[in-house]
Each structure stands twice: as structure tokens, then as C-alpha cells.
Amino acid sequence: MSGRQGRKTAGPSAPASLTAEEQTLLATLRSHSKARRGADIDTLKSELDDWDDNSILTCMNSLSQKQYVDFISLGKSGKLAFKARSAEEATKTGGMKDEERIIYRLVKEAKNNGIWLKQLRDRSGLHSQLANTVIKNLEKKNVIKWVKPVKNPYKKVYLLFELEPSTELTGGAWYTDNEMDMDFIEQLSAQVYKYITMKSFPPKNKDAIYSSSYSSYPTASAIHKFIGKSGLTTVPLSLEDVQSLLDRLYYDGKVTRIVKSGYAESDYDRMDTDDEDYRDGDEEVRDLDSDVWMYKAVGGWATEERNGWTDMPCGRCPVFEFCSEGGPVNPSNCKYFKEWLQG
What we know:
Blueprint: H1 20-33, E1 39-40, H2 41-47, H3 53-65, E2 69-74, E3 79-84, H4 87-94, H5 98-109, E4 115-116, H6 117-124, H7 128-140, E5 144-147, E6 157-160, H8 167-170, E7 175-176, E8 179-180, H9 182-200, H10 220-230, H11 239-251, E9 255-259, H12 265-269, H13 282-292, E10 293-297, H14 313-316, H15 335-342
Antiparallel strand pairs: 1-3, 2-3, 4-6, 5-6, 7-8, 9-10
Helix pairs in contact: 1-3, 5-6, 5-7, 9-11, 10-11
């Protein structure tokens, strides 16, 4: 390696135990870690003048032994890459024994989904008694913690102490102390239904209806924003949580779904497909769902029962019984029906 001048350095806070080369490489890696991704050897060579493969790998192995770097697989290609640990994590793991690092690595790899106690012991390759001792020691040091999954409360699942468990483990917003909070769900559903009802009918005449071309019924995204601004709950709700409430109202027959103008039929047909290629981006599917569907209340403000028939002029016409072709009131020249169709 040559040409040390002009390269990145880790600055005055760089650990004293690192050589100048290691500090340079670590600083470069940390510039990539801010984006929560690592860097492969080709990327590093393009950013570090006069460093070849051997120089980078030699220095990287040293950083790894000192607990400053993780070796990872980059994306779907599985290409070898490197990711810098934070200074805090490097300090935390630097003083660990080998068996503690093994347990720590397995728990870290599980992220916020956690790893079951039995799997942790088996994959560590440590004797069961030793594994149990190491796990307890890491718990006491607040390095790892365990939670009870809502779907299987008799299991212990371990994750890093600073991580929040995934909704798969906790059940999400609808669970309190590992039990589904039906009171919370019912109360919030009622408020969401009230909001949809308010947006489903003209404010100046709550017994009237909008035209068939009306396209300002609320979407899941709009309802999500409403809940966030209204202060209805202090529990943070994701868009997916709100969608589950809307699905519940829909299948209970309290709201109906209308395709938002501008979306083709294929957009919402594909959301129910089993095509794995399309469903690779689950988050994109949920975002699409929140934009495609508008929600309209079925019941409305009126005291009598409402349905699809009563939500059109004929179903609510006060002279419906006198309406007939050729009569003084007839469907051919009904101005209300024409206005409704034309929007």
C-alpha cells in the first residue's frame, strides 16, 4: 500500500489500538454503514487509492479480529461485503469471550424476529450447560433479552437488548400483555367507521348521496393520517394496522370498497394473486392497496337500513311507487337519475 495522503481517516475519535491503515479503512466502511449497507472489495478499491485486494483483505481480517467489522453477503447476489460496527458495538463486543461472541452473533443475525432458545443452543455448537451460562451472562449485561411470542407464549425468543421485537412476536398494536385487546379494536373501529361515514355523504344534506363519479371517499392512507392527527390513540399504528381495521369493517358489511379513479382493474386484481414475482415487494403491494381502494359507509347517517339499492336515487325516491314509463313521474325523464349518472 502506498499513497497514504489524501485518504479518509477516522478522525480524533479513532481507537488508539488501530493502525493508520485500519483507521482509514474503518472510516471508509462507516461512510457506507450510514446507509445501512456494506461495501464490497471493488467499491473499496475505487475509493482507496493504491489499495489492492490483498491489502484490503489483510487489513479487514485484522479489523474483524478486533470486533470492528462484520463480513456479510451483499443483496441477492450473495457477494462478500464488509460492514463496520458502530463504536459502541465494537466496545461492547471487544471484551467478550469467544463463546459470548458466538451467542451474540447468532442473536444479532436474527434481528428483531429473534431466535428461539433451543435454536440458539443448537446453532452455537456449545455444550448445553455452557450455552445456558453464556446466555444468562449476556442477559445480566443487558446485551440480549428474551420475549414471549404472542403465538407461542411458552417459548423464549432472544434478540439484542436495544431492539424492539417484531409485530410477528408481539402481535402488533392490537395486543396488550400478549392478549388481543378487543375493547381497543372495537372503539377504534367505531371511530374509523364514523369518519368514513362523515366523508361518505354530503355534509349539507346527510340524507343525500354523492354522484356515481364522486372520487373523494377516504383511502387507507387518508384514514391513517386522520388517526395520527386526531389523537384517538397514543399507540403508533402502521398503515398495515389501519388496513386490517378497514378489512374488518368491510367483511362486517359496514363499508364498501370502490376503485379509485385512475387505477386499472389489473392493479387491484394482482393484489390477490399468488404470483411470487409480484409479491416480492410486499411493502409495495400494501402501499398500492392503500391507494387503489376508497371506502364508503354502507349504513350512513339515516336511521333506516341502507344498502346498495338505497344508495341510488331510485331506492330513496319518495314517489317511487308512482314512477312508471309514460306517467307523470317516469325513469326516462327523471332529472335526479340523470344528474346522478352524469355526476
